[in-house]
Amino acid sequence: RCAVLLRELTQPYLLRRSKKEVQEILQLPAKSEQVLFCNLSVAQYQVYVDFLTGHRMGELMQSRARAFFVLSVLRKICNHPDLLLLDEPEDGRPEDFGNPARS
């Protein structure tokens, strides 16, 4: 009963459209995807393999939350190993910030 009352009170302020109505109005082209594969650099590959063969991998894969953490780490390795911040200097500043050879 409360849900019906709430819906009646908010209905004049909410505009609900279906996906089909929006597509007709906007006339967008069909979605297209391109999947591109690229190889890991030697450093990325080494960090990737080291992480997968690490002694804590079995422990990390025992729960869903940890599995998502593992996937997140692997994604960071593939984007750039420095995203893991494993070897950050004590002063908090990256050693080679702005080095084009590393980016």
UniProtKB/TrEMBL annotation:
One of its GO terms (biological process) is transcription-coupled nucleotide-excision repair. Residues 3-83 form the SNF2 N-terminal domain. Gene3D superfamilies: P-loop containing nucleotide triphosphate hydrolases, SWI2/SNF2 ATPases, N-terminal domain. GO terms for cellular component: nucleus. Pfam families: SNF2-rel_dom (PF00176). It comes from the Eukaryota. GO terms for molecular function: ATP binding; ATP-dependent activity, acting on DNA. PANTHER family: DNA EXCISION REPAIR PROTEIN ERCC-6-RELATED, SNF2/RAD54 FAMILY MEMBER. This is SNF2 N-terminal domain-containing protein. The lineage of its organism: Eukaryota, Sar, Alveolata, Colpodellida, Vitrellaceae.
